[in-house]
From TrEMBL:
Identification of the protein by name: Phosphoglycerate kinase
Database matches in SUPFAM superfamilies: Phosphoglycerate kinase
Organism: Bhargavaea ullalensis
Keyword Transferase (UniProt): yes
Gene3D superfamilies: Phosphoglycerate kinase, N-terminal domain
PROSITE patterns: PGLYCERATE_KINASE (PS00111)
Annotated gene: pgk
InterPro entries assigned: Phosphoglycerate_kinase, Phosphoglycerate_kinase_CS, Phosphoglycerate_kinase_N, Phosphoglycerate_kinase_sf
Pathway annotation from the record: Carbohydrate degradation; glycolysis; pyruvate from D-glyceraldehyde 3-phosphate: step 2/5
Positions contributing to substrate binding: 22-24, 37, 60-63, 119, 152
Binding site for ATP: 202, 293, 324, 350-353
Keyword terms: ATP-binding, Cytoplasm, Glycolysis, Kinase, Nucleotide-binding, Transferase
GO molecular function, one term: phosphoglycerate kinase activity
Length: 394
């Protein structure tokens, strides 16, 4: 288990704290469409402020590639944060330099400032030591609460920790506790559900989880490469020809490790990739030529729901089908419902699975929904996250 210091282990009163958060939220026309990540950071921001720190928040937003981009300013985020916190947050138009130094110099204990998008500087993604030093010079303590960006070795997520005492925020601590416990000491049966589009993106996680789980349920686009490995015709379904051998080796590895690998036994197939395509349910070994599998079938969904219901720990990453289209959402919905109903502890690994659970109105019934997409995936691959490694050990 990862043992890192957190804000509970340090005295912050009267200190200037550079707190990296992940406020990379989706926006449309300048409006925030999902503020989950801002809400998730509130306990840390509140605690720091209430404990008398001067709180300097920093985040990236989008991928501005080292240049100022008017559409990626932190303005709307700062407004939403003020509303949610119920106190004024000053949003600056720079993240380093004289304007920032002046604003920071005038802060009182409990004040909260939000810096401009740190990715407006080229040095951020390059983990430039000069930029990291400039960030560090603003503060006495570094807090990283940006679990969603912990897989990035950037100036504000990693480099800065070379210059300041560095601890985790409450969100970071919780994410590491929950995901860490599931992987290190899960209550069993431990079931992982892996879906999503491609095998290529999930190789690491499937390989790692085969060492850990009792059941592995596969669905989504990636499952058709496994169907092919089983010798079935897959019609026009998404298949990565160059990963068929790998899929076969995973089937073998599951046998060696005593993992029950569950593959779809039926599929919802469509005449084309479209919301109003003609559809039918077929057995997995009878996908007709010219048709494509876009969801797991009802029999598969029932089997998966049954395994989930019998599990004590459930870890889910990636949808079971093209859940964005109603015609192909049932498999993902059924798995989401079973995950909501089970007595087991359910962890949703961020990204599209979190979006699916939200769409079905089941978020509240899950035990933990990670705020990290890429970060939680890398964690579930057993990789070290640079934003975590950089923090001080307990
Ligand atoms: N059978 C299928 N054929 C084609 N696409 C599919 C199929 N099943 C699911 N998908 C698509 O896969 C996409 C999600 O996969 P992807 O790997 O990008 O996300 P993810 O697994 O949730 O990862 P992240 O957590 O990083 O977002 C969804 O948009 C979904 O429509
Ligand atoms: O949205 C995310 O997954 C994180 O905020 C990281 O963003 P990035 O993929 O642009 O680094």
């Amino acid at each position: 288990m990862i043992r890192k210091k957190s804000i509970n282990d340090v005295d912050v009163r009267g200190k200037r704290v550079f707190c990296r958060v992940d406020f990379n939220v989706p926006q449309e026309g300048g409006q925030i469409t999902d503020d989950t990540r801002i809400r998730a950071a509130l306990p840390t921001v509140r605690k720091l402020s209430e404990d008398g720190a001067q709180v300097i928040l920093a985040s990236h937003l989008g991928r501005p590639k080292g240049k100022v981009n008017e559409e990626m300013r932190m303005t709307a985020v700062g407004q939403r944060l003020s509303e949610l916190l119920g106190r004024e947050v000053t949003t600056l138009r720079k993240s380093v330099g004289p304007e920032v130094e002046q604003a920071v110099g005038g802060m009182k204990n409990g004040d909260v400032i939000l810096l401009e998008n740190v990715r407006f500087h080229e040095g951020e993604e390059k983990n430039d030591p000069g930029l990291a030093k400039q960030f560090a010079a603003l503060a006495d303590l570094y807090v990283n609460d940006a679990f969603g960006a912990a897989h990035r070795a950037h100036a504000s997520t990693a480099g800065i920790a070379d210059h300041l005492p560095a601890v985790s925020g409450l969100l970071m601590e919780k994410e590491l506790d929950v995901l860490g416990k599931a992987l290190a000491d899960p209550e069993r049966p431990f079931t992982a559900i892996i879906g999503g589009a491609k095998v290529k993106d999930k190789i690491g996680v499937i390989d790692f989880l085969l060492e850990k789980v009792d059941h592995l349920l596969l669905g989504g686009g990636l499952s058709y490469t496994f169907s092919r490995a089983q010798g079935h015709d897959t019609g026009n379904s998404l298949v990565e020809e160059d990963k068929v051998d790998l899929a076969r080796s995973f089937i073998e590895k599951a046998k060696e490790k005593g993992v029950e690998l569950h593959l779809p036994v039926d599929a919802v197939v469509a005449s084309e990739f479209s919301a109003d395509a003609e559809t039918k349910v077929v057995s997995i070994d009878s996908i007709p030529a010219g048709w494509m599998g876009l969801d797991i079938g009802p029999q598969t969904a029932e089997e998966y729901a049954d395994v989930i219901g019998r599990s004590k720990t459930i870890l889910w990453n990636g949808p079971m089908g093209v859940f964005e289209m109603d015609a192909f959402a049932d498999g993902t919905r059924k798995v989401a419902e079973a995950s909501a109903e089970t007595d087991g502890y359910t962890i949703i690994g961020g990204g599209d699975s979190a979006a699916a659970v939200e769409k079905f109105g089941l978020s509240e019934q899950m035990d933990h929904i990670s705020t990290g997409g890429g970060a939680s995936l890398e964690f579930m691959e057993g990789k070290d996250l640079p934003g975590v490694s950089a923090l001080d050990d307990k």
